[in-house]
Design brief:
It is elongated, with a radius of gyration of 22 Å. Helix 4 crosses helix 6. It has 9 helices and 9 strands. It has 2 domains: about 100 residues, Arc Repressor Mutant, subunit A (Orthogonal Bundle), CATH 1.10.10; about 150 residues, Multidrug-efflux Transporter 1 Regulator Bmrr, Chain A (Alpha-Beta Barrel). Strand 3 and strand 4 form a beta hairpin.
Amino acid sequence: MSQLEDLNRAMAYIEEHLDGTVDMDVLARIAACSKYQLQRMFPYLAGVTLPEYIRRRVMTRAAQDLRATDAKVMDVALRYGYDSPTAFARAFRRVHGASPNDARRPQTKLTLYPRFVFTLSVKGEEPMDYRIIEQGAFRVVGIPSDNGTWEVEDAGEKAVDYWEKLGPRVHEILDLVDGSEPAGLLGVQFCRDGAFDCYMACVATNRPCPEGMEERIVEAATYAVFECVGPMPEAMTNLWHRILTEWLPSSGYRWESKTDVERYFTPRMTAPDSRSEVWLPVVKA
């Protein structure tokens, strides 16, 4: 079964569980990926985060029920997993710009968000160069993010803020370089049990871990490696979009639930000629 078929089965599962019983672990299993991968991939594919998509579909159905039946607002709220009429009304207004009671008035404008169906779009635009490598396990030392403040859907924006706040401490990390491979400054996204754990600016090194930093092991993996040229973060965001929407669905590979790596070669990441790489862990489909 192809990745797109798996994703469409996941969309069908959401439709069957709009009563508030969508289980993210089950959803990820149906989509044949980890929770982290599904939440990271979805905004690139759909243009909206997964929780927001589910919320919009719930409120679309709720509006249809309010228009088509005489059910009490509280009963409709309960049907879609809301114990509080206030919380239901707030979520409803956020999507439709009107209250649940107003939704019954014929002149009230409501918004319908259709169910997503994923298809392979053949654009025939720019080719994507990549190489497949076998990378053994390696040790990294660096400064992890505060994972308690991160959501996977906001990882891109959070990473930009993280790098800005890191500032001069990047040089402390680079001082640990000892010739270990892969060379260069790394941005690594670690997961635990299929869920996002932390983002970490680091280098591959065998030197002792200084106080205030952390050491981790990046497990061995097969990686698809893509070169990125252009200023951060725009160039990297665009590359991730192309990898997940163009390359991955038609590549014959699946995104493996291992560690994603970004590799930076240029000190000034915002320079127009800044060079970097994305290492995507993959397995044959």
